[in-house]
Amino acid sequence: MAKALIIGAGGVAQVVVHKCCQNPDVFEEICIASRTKSKCDALKEKLDGGKTKIQTAQVDADKTEEVIELIKQFGPDIVINVALPYQDLTIMDACLATGVDYLDTANYEPLDTAKFEYKWQWAYRERFEKAGITALLGSGFDPGVTGVFCAYAQKHYFDEIHTIDILDANGGDHGYPFATNFNPEINIREITANGRYWEKGEFVETPPLSIKKVYDFEGIGEKDIYLLYHEELESLALNIKGIQKIRFWMTFSQNYLTHLKVLENVGMTSIEPIVYEGREIVPLQFLKALLPDPASLGPRTKGKTNIGCVIQGVKDGQPRTYYVYNMCDHQEAYKEVGSQAISYTTGVPAVIGAMMILKGLWKKPGVFNIEEFDPDPFMEQLNKQGLPWHESFEPVLLD
Amino acid sequence: MAKALIIGAGGVAQVVVHKCCQNPDVFEEICIASRTKSKCDALKEKLDGGKTKIQTAQVDADKTEEVIELIKQFGPDIVINVALPYQDLTIMDACLATGVDYLDTANYEPLDTAKFEYKWQWAYRERFEKAGITALLGSGFDPGVTGVFCAYAQKHYFDEIHTIDILDANGGDHGYPFATNFNPEINIREITANGRYWEKGEFVETPPLSIKKVYDFEGIGEKDIYLLYHEELESLALNIKGIQKIRFWMTFSQNYLTHLKVLENVGMTSIEPIVYEGREIVPLQFLKALLPDPASLGPRTKGKTNIGCVIQGVKDGQPRTYYVYNMCDHQEAYKEVGSQAISYTTGVPAVIGAMMILKGLWKKPGVFNIEEFDPDPFMEQLNKQGLPWHESFEPVLLD
Question: Which residues contact residue B25 at a Cβ distance below 8 angstroms, ignoring those fewer than 6 apart?
Fold first, then answer.
């Protein structure tokens, strides 16, 4: 029986709150806090009346002092950070100051450099160790479940893993000619950034979207997949012993890429303000205002996501292949928690990660990536909490 | 020796002013007038020192009284209207009030309906007749030279014309991924409007860009052409006796259409304001601010335009085909007059039309479309004034 402070009130937070309330044996009491308290109150109103007690609070997570104050008031056993990645460090600082465990779903990035790197958060290792508290980094789906999948494969099926291909497919259709699932700024940045994969001890850079394949996904069908960099590559390259190659692949439709390319061509994705009628306007911000609100996509989105890992290696001297994946249905997710699969697949693993720490299963002083823990209890919870996984020992491989 | 009042100071006006100054035997004195006098002064500065005397003036052509006042002051023999089509009627009213001949390059359209129709200007016929003055409508390239081409074919090569296909190709490349040659609002409206062609006594509507063919243009090569409505179809259908079918075709690249479609999809071409940070912003206006300034395209644009008419009919009881066209080089036009071919092909015919009236060749009381006059002296001037034409009696036909 524990208390969790949830920072954030967006789509993922909504899933986290629902799932906490579905597990009152673990989450006795939660506090939902964000910059806009009315959003927290709206969530509380939806879910009040169950066994889990719900509080709300206003907090500016950019300000460590405010987070410390709130932690002191509420007294949580863990802080579940589902706010913006820019706020990871201020919240970690507050956890250090108050001796409370910490969990997030995406690694810290400074506002100005747009670099996905763990170095800023790994720099907290010693301080968390000394404080005797746990920080679990990247407990969403990818990063998150993908790391658990790799650790599970390592533990049960391989003596040595040589190749990991993480495949992230979204077969959802929202019926608009163009819209983005979440913050379009992040979508656009992912796509316009160089690709990067890990091979033989170093990262290899590739031009944006220059490596494309087609993969046939269960529950979705054939999709174009593109090699991207994704943050879990950095930790998996260190934590999976003997690994030779790790790549991350994501589906994008030709239609989506065409829209993005055109918007880039005309300057609509730029974050440099232009002066329009005497006032500075950031084109990307104006585009956001024109596009459908990501929150409005939930009720309209049909189809499934399919995210998993295709793994190659050896067991008992024999080559072995293994594919472990989850399929999540957008409409079913929306029916259950009011958010579609993109938020669902991120929020549920955050709650499972918190459970692991609160139950003492993953309670260890320091700062950790998810694949550093025993995957078995997490894999068990995935099946119980709405993200059942499937496995195959004869998957189609990527050359 | 005559005096011309030129209303407008954009790309076409720049061509008109240059060409008037190249023909000081006809244009003894000109006055360049527009809302922004500094633009007129800049043009004057460029061209001062030749035989043609140049004045400038500030005028709001929306206000008939202001135009009347200016005509009284300057005392022109003709008003060359290369301002906005919204201003045709106020300028015609001023010509009526002062007894001065009138010429324009595009038909009047009310600001709110976006309909290309001659009815508003044709309604002035009786008043111009009674005033003893001439109004020449649509003396650009298309409308304009295309009508002269048809009249020329009719006069010299056909007993009866059955089919006219007007082909407007722009092979220009400005090197930007996307930009529009002139006001993007007009570009976008042309493309998103229904197509329309004239067949057997009536107009047939087609969905936007639904009829596409490929045509091999001299000087340009193979291009996609799309059936559009264009204003000269309305007058040619009445003025070419025995005509059974008239169509207008324009080239658009797949790249251009893709950009336009995407911008439409995300709402960037909308003229409905949205509220952004507390202020109303029209998305299309914001897009204009982002796109390269159409005026900046001139120096960068390479390649040619090719505009002409493919005509089918009978002569002496035998079927006959005829193709008459002009090719205009963007860079040569820019070198000569500081505007590329799109403006050049509109401005030169305006000056030739004015010559026809000022020389008394086309001086007739009333309101006329260009194909109603003897085409021969106009065709002769096209060759002299920089728009030489070519003809073929075995053109590739459009089915």
Answer: B1
A21 touches A27 (CB < 8 A): yes
Write out chain B residues lying below 8 Å of A258, CB-based: 258, 262
Between B271 and B34, name the one with better pLDDT: B34
* pLDDT tens, position by position, A88-129: 999 999 999 999 999 999 888 776 655 678 999 999 999 999
Which stretches of chain A score pLDDT less than 50? Answer: none
Residue A71 is assigned to a structural domain of this protein: no
Rg (CA), chain A: 21
Range of the domain at A159: 145-328
DSSP bridge partners of A249: A167, A227
Whether A221 is covered by a domain: the verdict is yes
Read off the CATH number of the domain in which A283 is found.
3.30.360.10
Query: Is B42 contained in some domain?
Result: no
Give, in order, the Cα–Cα distances in Å from A118 to each of A85, A122, A143, A182, A346: 12, 6, 12, 22, 19
Hey, are the CB atoms on B276 and A281 less than 8 Å from each other? Answer: yes
Q: Would the pTM of this model clear 0.80, i.e. be above it?
A: no
Query: How close does chain B come to A86, measured CA to CA in Å?
Result: 23
The answer, for A263 touching chain B at a CB cutoff of 8 Å, is yes
Sign of CA dihedral A192, A194, A197, A202: negative
Instruction: Report the complex ipTM.
Output: 0.72
Cβ-nearest to A262 among B259, B277, B290: B259
pLDDT (tens digit, 9 = 90+) per residue, B387-397? 999 999 999 99
CA distance A254 to chain B (A): 12
What is the count of residue pairs from A and B with beta carbons less than 8 Å apart?
Answer: 60
Residues of chain B with C-beta less than 8 angstroms from the C-beta of A274? 289-290
- Determine contact: B10 vs chain A, CB below 8 A: no
